[in-house]
């Protein structure tokens, strides 16, 4: 399954509240993410507000589009938007910067194992 990594910037003065909001994400939001094709989704936060997200999805664009039409996502994005900088009017789910994967251990081990005699 394809892996995706992205970054956003959380306002440093809102870190504690942002973390608290993610301690108990709404059950209907969790279900919508699952049902829309988001798998193994994690967020990592640095003390200066750098947020790194990791998600696996068969097709991230399709997973994002499936979430975009849910009512719960509209509510969640509206609440989360206040925590971020640099979105230029977009929701957090539309404003993240995808990072290029340049190394994956298992992929290289598999390639190496198939080349060995």
From TrEMBL:
Listed InterPro entries: Dimeric_a/b-barrel, Rham/fucose_mutarotase
Superkingdom of the source species: Bacteria
Pfam families cross-referenced by the UniProt entry: rhaM
This protein's name: L-rhamnose mutarotase
UniProt organism field: Pseudonocardia yunnanensis
């Amino acid at each position: 399954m394809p892996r995706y990594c992205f970054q956003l910037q959380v306002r440093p003065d809102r870190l504690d509240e942002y973390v608290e909001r993610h301690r108990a994400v709404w059950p209907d939001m969790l279900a919508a993410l699952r049902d829309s094709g988001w798998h193994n989704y994690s967020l990592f936060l640095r003390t200066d507000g750098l947020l790194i997200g990791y998600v696996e999805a068969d097709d991230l664009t399709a997973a994002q589009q499936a979430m975009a039409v849910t009512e719960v996502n509209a509510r969640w994005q509206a609440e989360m938007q206040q925590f971020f900088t640099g979105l230029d009017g977009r929701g957090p789910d539309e404003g993240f910067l995808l990072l290029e994967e340049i190394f994956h251990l298992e992929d290289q081990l598999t390639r190496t194992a198939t080349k060995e005699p």
